[in-house]
Amino acid sequence: MKILGIGSRIKHPEHGLGVVTNVTAKHYWVTFIESGLETIDVDATFEVIEALEDEVDSVSFYEVERTLKNVLQRWSDVSQVVPIADKWKGGKLVMEPGTPTSNKEIPIDTFFHKITMVRDRLRVMEQKINSSNLDEVDKIDLQQYITRCYGSLTTFNVLFKSTNDYFVGEKTK
Predict the structure, then answer these.
(1) Nearest-angstrom CA–CA distance, 127 and 71
(2) Which phi and psi (to 5°) does residue 36 adopt?
């Protein structure tokens, strides 16, 4: 079966006349005159009015974007979006100095983003330590420092919407 290229014109039995605007391995995205944008299977029944060569490698922008996100999440410190607790949305953090100067205010969302970046970078550091050539004693020592860092950051757990995103330090026995 020959894949149609972007710009090909077709006549679909249900949607009428349309132009192929995107192509994936399994679907055509077609803009129809009467029904707007529709996704149809490449093996659907329709009449080809004018076929243009498929000049691209039948991969959609969405597929490329999804693959790139997966690579970045796996190999960098690009973090997933972690939701802030609803009660803090739109709030502000006010820092009041002990000396008579003006307060400093920042959006709490900005502060929360920085806290989650610290957490994610600690996770990346953990992964790098675990996959390193260090001997086990050194790995354990470094892991303990990271665990203590998590423990120091538990104060900020109140900002997280989900308990699954909390910082967790050493468990007391």
Answers:
(1) 15
(2) 75, -150
Q: Give dist(CA 20, CA 56) in Å, integer.
A: 13
* CA atoms of 61 and 85, how far apart (whole Å): 33
Nearest alpha-carbon partner for 8 in 58, 45, 41, 51: 51
Among 162, 90, 149, residue whose Cα is nearest residue 120: 149
6-26 per-position pLDDT tens digit: 889 999 999 999 999 888 888
Instruction: Please list, in sequence order, all residues whose beta carbon lies within 8 angstroms of the beta carbon of residue 8, skipping any fewer than 6 positions away.
Output: 19, 20, 48, 50, 51, 52
Contact criterion met (CB below 8 Å) for 35 and 10: no
Against a cut of 0.90, is the pTM above it? no
